[in-house]
Design goal:
It is built from 32 helices and no strands. It is mainly α. It has a domain of 134 residues: Serine Threonine Protein Phosphatase 5, Tetratricopeptide repeat (Alpha Horseshoe). α19 runs antiparallel to α20 and α29 packs antiparallel against α30.
């Protein structure tokens, strides 16, 4: 008898396993049909599985979705009603029925079922019900569900992010912004998430204004909470309004009795965007905190850098502006001494002497003294050597220049600094007319990890190859390279004479467009902007299909935008570049500037 019962149990277990295995096979097949879009075949299998397991929510849901996909609404409705007989308290079933009715254009009846679901919802069901509505594209009812959740819990900030996302789906920017700000208030540790969500509202002026309006209102209503001033500052950064950002940052700095760290951050951002006046005001604010402030010296130095940038990037700076800046640098070095901490200011003053005040000797003296300071680290010493090499090159001391470049190359062989030194040596070989050796170095540098160095190396390499390959003599190229060196040395009269000699001795030469471009660049360095524009125009008229055409048109656009103040003309040039030279390296920047001039909000 015992053996008989044992055998029965084994048989029952085997049958059960076999049945389970069949179920799993059927389920996998139905899922495969669903993935392939063969919903009728899937529905037939799900029907069988559901009938075998009518209390399984998984089989019900899969069967319902398959019937919906094949638009068998009558069968789907019978299925839902059958399920409702088993459980009339499940809100999701009323939503299913509502969707069926709406699919049959019975809108009011369908929404009545949705309302039933909302009325019976418990607070722990809110998220799942909202997800059902969201997945069905019923965003308005998803919103109603979250609001119902707030009623049930008596918490008017609950589901803030979820609500905001639903409001975005229905195009309600005002409530979406409010939702994200509520989320920031309740979850300040997730501020970066809020920034990511709010970023889309900084692209359209009306939405940005709404965001600012709500932030100001919240700041006024609760001036103790710091989260909203932080977000407002972030908004001003996104739209590049550093003047307004400074007002808010300064207020926070005073309120929190800080040392000016966040003001320094703002000043640097403003400087990067060439909003010099705001940057200067911010640096001066930090300096006004006094000499005991830990950021005092840094702010002093960065203020000098900012004023330097403003002067050299402003079309109409004067000799008096340069002398005033020189005086400020000298006063700074008098107060804080010439040491490793002020090396940046020393190098900047040397550049001012070399490139703007035509006093290369003073620059060399400053830099040589700097190299004698034992406290300067290896990296800054290398930067100083590169500066000194440039100054010696300006003086015509070729051997001294290459000596310093080579020292940096040797000390930083596997660093970008070493690559920069190698490029300078390659260019020095080019100046000397040793094109073969220059090419050998440039070919290596084209693979530089620095995009700037790689591009410069490629550009010079192509220039040498193109112009040497077309001629039986290297003399015109040697003369052109000589003119390049003279320009670098600020010997503009000699450079012009050399270029004139090429035109006279070799008329209609392949270098003619390069000579025009070199003349334009020389005019730019001397701030002869009208003359530079004429040279660029000549390139477009005579060499519009050659390699320098996009460089010329981009330069013309910049001249009209910045120096001439002709915004419409600048837009015209940027547009021409985008249309005629779509492969140009300037396309991305040209498009950005064009949109900015047009009035678009560009991040």
């Amino acid at each position: 008898m015992y053996r008989f019962f044992a055998l029965c149990l084994v048989l029952l277990f085997t049958v059960s396993l076999f049945a389970q295995d069949n179920l799993q096979q059927d389920l996998r097949l139905a899922q495969q049909y669903t993935r392939q879009g063969e919903y009728e075949k899937a529905a037939a299998i799900y029907e069988r599985l559901y009938n075998q397991n009518p209390k399984s929510s998984m089989y019900y849901r899969s069967y319902y979705n398959a019937l919906l996909a094949v638009k068998d609404f009558a069968k789907a409705e019978d299925l839902v009603k059958k399920q409702l007989k088993q459980d009339k308290t499940d809100p999701a079933l009323y939503i299913d029925l509502g969707l069926l009715l709406k699919n049959q254009y019975k809108i009011e009846e369908g929404e009545a079922e949705f309302d039933k679901a909302l009325k019976m919802a418990k607070d722990q069901q809110i998220l799942s019900i909202a997800n059902v509505f969201n997945n069905a594209g019923e965003n308005a009812y998803a919103i109603k569900t979250y609001l119902r959740g707030r009623e049930l819990t008596k918490n008017d900030k609950l589901y803030a992010r979820e609500l905001a996302q639903q409001y975005m789906q229905v195009g309600d920017s005002k409530n979406a912004i409010a939702g994200f700000l509520d989320y920031a208030l309740t979850q300040p540790e997730h501020l970066q998430i809020v920034f990511n969500e709010l970023l889309r509202f900084t692209n359209k002026e009306e939405e940005t204004e709404e965001l600012q309006k709500q932030l100001y209102a919240r700041i006024q209503a609760d001036n103790q909470n710091l989260i909203f001033p932080e977000i407002l500052i972030w908004v001003f950064y996104q739209i590049k309004d550093f003047e307004q950002a400074f007002i808010q940052v300064k207020a926070l700095d005073k309120r929190l009795n800080e040392d000016g760290k966040r003001v320094m951050e703002l000043a640097r951002k403003a400087l990067n965007e060439k909003q010099y006046d705001t940057a200067i005001e911010a640096f001066e604010y930090v300096i006004a905190k006094g000499e005991t402030n830990p950021l005092y010296i840094r702010a002093k130095e960065e203020l000098l850098n900012c004023r330097n940038d403003k002067i050299v990037n402003t079309p109409n700076f004067t000799e008096a502006d340069l002398r005033g800046l020189e005086s400020d640098y000298l006063e700074f070095l008098r107060l804080f001494g010439k040491n490793a901490n002020t090396l940046s200011a020393i190098r900047d003053l040397a550049a001012l002497y070399a490139y703007y005040l035509n006093n290369v000797n003073a620059a060399v003296t400053l830099l040589e003294d700097a190299l004698k300071m034992s406290s300067v680290n290896a990296y800054n010493r290398a930067l100083t050597k590169l500066d000194l090499g440039d100054c010696y090159l300006m003086q015509g001391e070729i051997w001294e220049a290459t000596l310093y470049y080579s020292q940096v190359d040797k000390d930083f062989k596997d660093d970008i600094l070493g690559e920069e030194a190698r490029f300078k040596n390659a260019k020095l070989s080019y100046y000397n007319g040793d094109f073969e050796w220059a090419q050998a170095q440039l070919n290596v540098l084209k693979a530089s990890t620095s995009e700037l160095i790689a591009n410069d190396a490629l550009k010079l390499s192509v220039f040498i190859t193109d112009n040497l390959g077309l001629d039986t003599t290297a003399v015109p190229m040697q003369m052109f390279a000589r003119a390049d060196l003279l320009t670098m040395q600020n010997r503009y009269t000699d450079a012009t004479k050399t270029l004139d000699s090429i035109n006279s001795a070799y008329p209609n030469h392949a270098l003619d467009d390069d000579i025009l471009y070199a003349r334009a660049e020389m005019s730019m360095r001397q701030r002869k902007y009208t003359e530079a524009a004429q040279y660029y125009e000549a390139i477009l008229q005579n060499y519009g299909t050659d390699i320098l055409a996009d460089d010329a048109i981009f330069a013309l656009a910049g001249l009209n935008e910045v120096q001439f103040g002709k915004k419409d003309k600048a837009m015209e040039y940027y547009q021409q570049l985008l249309i005629k030279y779509p492969g140009s390296l300037y396309v991305v920047e040209a498009r950005k500037r064009y949109r900015k001039l047009r009035g678009d909000m560009v991040n």
